[in-house]
Design a protein that fits this description.
This is Neutral metalloproteinase. Its cofactor is Zn(2+). GO terms for molecular function: metal ion binding; metalloendopeptidase activity. InterPro entries: Metalloprotease_M4 (IPR052759), Peptidase_M4 (IPR023612), Peptidase_M4/M1_CTD_sf (IPR027268), Peptidase_M4_C_domain (IPR001570), Peptidase_M4_domain (IPR013856). With about 325 residues, the protein is of the alpha/beta class. Helices cover about 35% and strands about 10% of the residues. It has helices at about 40-55, 105-120, 130-150, 210-215, 220-230, 240-245, 260-275, 280-290, and strands spanning about 10-15, 25-30, 70-75, 85, 90, 160, 175-180, 185-190, 190-195. The chain has a 5-stranded mixed beta sheet with strand order 2-1-3-5-4, covered by helices on one side. Strands 6-7 form a two-stranded antiparallel ribbon. A two-stranded antiparallel sheet has the order 8-9. The longest helix is centred in the middle third of the chain and has 23 residues, at about 130-150. Mean pLDDT is about 90; it is low at about 300-323.
Length: about 325
Amino acid sequence: GVARVRGRLDRAVSDAAGLERLPGRLVRRAEQPAGADLAVNEAWDGLGDTHSLFWDVFGRDSIDDRGLSLEATVHYGRKYDNAFWDGERMVFGDGDGLVFNRFTSSLTVIGHELTHGVTQFTANLAYEGQSGAINESLSDVFGSLVEQRSLGQSAAEAGWLIGEGLFTDQVQGDALRSLKAPGTAYNDDVLGKDPQPADMAGYIETEDDNGGVHLNSGIPNRAFYLVATALGGNAWETAGQIWFDTLTSGTLGRAVDFAGFARATSRAAVARHGAGSREHDAVIAGWTAVGLGGGLGTGFGSRTGTGSEGGAGTGFNPLTRPE
């Protein structure tokens, strides 16, 4: 047979038509034109934008680096308030219309979920505690970069929000999370206040949410934001490359903690830009600002143990609310 062309985008979108069954009916594939269904078109375009970031910027051939077809299912469930990566495909709910709009409306959400796939095929970080918060943070980082690149935004111009536009007008909030200012994304009578800490002083010890993976991810999120804005220009070009190098280095243990991840980004900056370079200094300064600067001056990190198996869940939306 003919060898597949590396970097070629394969994608397909299916419609679950309000049922919680996967994959649903195939409604768009190959290079079919856009139809009338907004959710189908948004999912289709988001798969393309995410593929483009990983291939055109980082040279990764789809999420598995072997050209995996990117598949999405829309209209999952009735008024379903979530989007998730199930290990094989992206799944999007339509939202309940009261708190959430349709989940395809946010490109950062699409990029976030597909990045869970990249992480699954690379570092495979255990989805609990600090390694789980890093897993979540990586999805927020690359989800944000997908949107920034799609919109042609510099690090200074970007909004650094995850899920902007997901909340309906009835909610007092801008987005699910902010990388720039964790803890400020929403403050609503019903949903409460965005609980994310912005540094280690606010670190949350909890058994909920797999050990706070959607909470404490604010800490590495802000570190990345600080590195990217210190370096300026387009965040995907330098800061994003350092984080991508770290994710795909093969040196992260499955149970890596924040300090170990910070050291790994420092090593990646040294490998690409040199010790004491502007880029290396920016990485150290970013982690130091969130309380994780210890041991970064040396660039010597240790590989963490494998840790226990994490759950397969990659639930996106941490909000819980009374029915």
